[in-house]
Amino acid sequence: MIISTAILPGSHPSNNPAGNHISHAFLVHFKPSFHTVRVLTRDPSSAVAQALAAQGAQLRLFDSAREGLDLARSLDEALDGVDVVVNALPGKTSDQVKRAVVEAAARSRARVYILDEYGLDHRIAAVPGHEHPGWLEKGRVSIETRERLKGRKVIALYATLFLEFAITPQMGIDVAKNTYTCYGSPTQPFSTTAMEDIGRAVARLSILALDPSTAPTVLDEVRIAGTTTTTYAEIRDVVARVRGVPGAEIEVRDVGELKEEIRESGPGEKAFYEYMKVVIGEGKVDFSAGNVNELVNPGGKLWKWKTVEEHVRGLLA
Prior knowledge:
Layout: E1 3-8, H1 17-29, E2 34-41, H2 47-54, E3 58-61, H3 68-79, E4 84-87, H4 95-107, E5 112-114, H5 133-148, E6 153-158, E7 161-162, H6 163-166, E8 173-174, E9 179-183, E10 192-193, H7 195-210, E11 221-223, H8 232-243, E12 250-253, H9 255-265, H10 272-281, H11 293-296, H12 308-316
Parallel strand pairs: 1-2, 1-4, 2-3, 4-5, 5-6, 6-11, 7-10, 9-12
Antiparallel strand pairs: 8-9
Helix pairs in contact: 1-7, 3-4, 8-12, 9-10
């Protein structure tokens, strides 16, 4: 099966690491499966874009400042002849550009369209009635895209928290200072997935969705969980082991109080990671059941999922 694909990181690739990892997976890890990989970028001369070109990417200038027919024409040229469209546009992309991409995909011959998701399953609201505006926007785009691309395979991949984002001071985990703060139980399981593993999963889903023998196994909305689950306590223990220091005390705060703060502040007033702390504390980010890890990576034979310890060791190297 010969597959052509177009990937839309959209902005400068180095400012969109998820899109860069997705491109890398298509170009390197699953290169034999893809005849053509086109990467749309605002700056084809950048070091990151040139590195992708060296791996075999066909670079296409994607200037989201274009309007009307000019934007439509450039997208039509970029998507001409592709089988798969992978949307990895930044979250702040304008509605005009988002709709233009979907319209171009509808005009193309593409049979598979990967939605710009990759993170938390936003259908699980942190604070019902006070959802983060970004999650509401993703829900709207998903509905509109599926309506416009009826008859095509439209896939939403939810990968929980990026491993690279989960272990940060913003999320209450400061590896350098060995300090930890969580909302709810420190032993509450939650799932994380490294961006490089998300990229591989996107490539595998594209391959599976295009093959008539495996297409029925790919649902419209799927989850992966690279580490399966971890906890704040486990991460604390990993850091202690890697650094050779005593395990620190974990400061535990009331998740209900944080929820109330979000309600009182109004939608979008609290930082995105505050919403994430709520869904973790309430146990809504445990994707150990109902994920498609085995579908995309049977028996872990295609690649090794990146672990929390591997990431921590990288941070401390």
